Amino acid sequence: MLRPYGYIAPLLVWWGMIIAYPLVRAIYLSFTNSSPLAPTTTFVGLSNFESIFAGGATTTAVEFTVVFALCSTAVEILAGTILALLFSRLRPGFGWLIGVVMIPWAISEIVTATAGAWLFNAQFGMVNGVLHALFGIRPVWLSNVTLARLALILMNSWEFTPLAFLFILTALTNVPRDLVEQATVDGAGNLKTYQHVHWHIVKPVVLGIATFVTAINIVAFALPYEMTGGAPGTSTLLVAYQVYVLAIPGLQYAQGAALGLVILAMVLVVAGTGGLLLRRAERRLA
Amino acid sequence: MIASPTLAGRGTSRAVHRALFVAAIVVGVAILMFPVYWIVLSAFTPSQILFSPHFDFLPLHWSLANFRTGFQVVPVGSYFLHSVVLGIVPACLAILVALPAGYAFGRIKFFARGGILALIVFSGFLPIVASIIPLFELFKDLGIIGTWWALFLVYTGFLLGFTTWILSLFVARIPIEVEEAARLDGANEPALLRFVMVPLLRPAIASLFIVDFLASWNQFLLPTIFSTSASTSPLVLGISQASENPQLHSVAWGPQAAFGLIVVVPAIIVVLFFQRRIAGGLTAGAVKG
């Protein structure tokens, strides 16, 4: 049967050239000393992985990337759920408000990062403008390790909360009406209905979107690139940005490729864990 | 209902509920709009006021000075055009390539169908940054660095997984009877695709076009690496070019905000207008058909 393969051939060729080949090539590069600075490319075993973790900056970046991704996901799911619960009770005619909530998602990450850098500026930023007016304080957000990390997480959560919101809202509106009515007839209050009817149906979607946004959070690039540059010190380096720093300005192709594989492994762990949880939740549902 | 006082009490509590509900929505939307307000405010406030310690963050000093400063450094017209081209062409290419593939994955049973689709979809979530060095070398070997071809190839490549996946879901939802009827009428498969499936898939195609357009319009890493000259630069690259880097604490946020606003406004218009279509395309995977 040639038929299906003719249909998917253009896709496979394009995907093979732009996605699959570069990844395989990156795996190869990570075991060589490839760099525009090296005259010849030779096989060097695991030494790239040793050298990227030798300085300590990469270890910090990996650790902070995990914290950054998980905290962002927690905020995104929590805020997304609260907003979705509110919006699921919106009267007809106010559907356009969903579009308003989607706006942060539609804003380019580079605009988010640039705006974030100035929003959290200690002297002129509006965050401190509000904090000073309310509490008389002006924290130095981007020069303090903890605060800089917090600011980064807040900006990232702001950008992707709409995505969590949209998926959870869709799931909530798809809860069968007769199930809800049945629960009400059976004497279940609002809270009980949400707990036993809605949550049951929404849970797989929450798990799915949580996995999805965690994977997105792990590869965040523009925020450290434009908002903090990894500062103070190397405390806000995220792995995707560190790959860029190593490979593009640093010209360490092989080390960049090796660190790229580290991100790949992190995304695989997230996808695997999410998939496992999702399968378990769906089995319980069936 | 036995006593009417309960009814009256219920009425008031319902009004209180409603007020709390509206207040919660207003607070939620206000928090989400806070950074947007900041961008708009900064874009239209002259730098000397933006950087005065007495600035009270109110929109009282409207001026176009930041736009003028930005436009002196960056050719905004051609950058805008480049953004439009990079928004539209890869979206069209991705849909053209994904349509037959989506049909095959959604309808035809063949060896390793699920595995191939899963691999393609999953690879779409992998970090782009891990592939940029091999891609750069590949394009150098092909001699297309700095050309539109390089940009179209990578932009489209990173849209393919998602676009194919969502199309296959929509194809699978079209009743098989429609297809059988067309076959009975003597339609061969290419004709079936072109004259039966494509019209039925029009809503899905529209959703995907909008989502793909936004993804490309906002794409930052790819043009940073592969748009090597001003002759292909999209608007996103103009933001930092419009002024100095914020780490230098130079007084340059105004023009950056002005330029950022030019990137953001078309995207916001698209989202507000096509909110339903975007939601339909994005969440197709989460809705069991």
In N-to-C order, the SSE pattern of chain B is HHHHHHHHHHHHHH
Outline of chain B? flat
* Rg of chain A (CA only): 23 Å
Write down the oligomeric state.
heterodimer
CATH level 1 name of the largest domain in chain B: Mainly Alpha
Name given to the CATH architecture of the largest domain in chain B: Orthogonal Bundle
Biggest sheet of chain A: strands, sense, closure?
A: none
The portion of residues assigned to helices of chain B is over 70%
Descriptive overview:
- The complex is a heterodimer of chains A (286) and B (289).
- Chain A is an all-alpha fold and 286 residues long.
- Chain A has one domain (52-285): MetI-like fold (Orthogonal Bundle).
- Chain A contains 12 helices and no strands.
- Chain A has helices at 3-29, 47-54, 57-87, 96-106, 109-119, 126-135, 145-173, 177-185, 190-218, 222-228, 239-247, 253-285.
- In chain A, helix 3 runs antiparallel to helix 9 (190-218) and helix 7 packs across helix 9.
- The longest helix of chain A is centred in the C-terminal third of the chain and has 33 residues, at 253-285.
- The mean pLDDT of chain A is 91.
- By secondary structure, chain B is mainly α.
- Chain B has 2 domains: 4-65; 76-241, MetI-like (MetI-like fold, Orthogonal Bundle).
- Helices cover 74% and strands 0% of the residues of chain B.
- Chain B has helices at residues 4-44, 47-50, 65-73, 76-107, 113-123, 132-142, 148-173, 176-184, 189-200, 202-218, 221-226, 235-241, 253-273, 275-282.
- Chain B starts with a helix and ends in a 7-residue tail after the last helix.
- The relative contact order of chain B is 0.13.
- Mean pLDDT of chain B is 88; it is low at 1-8 and 245-249.
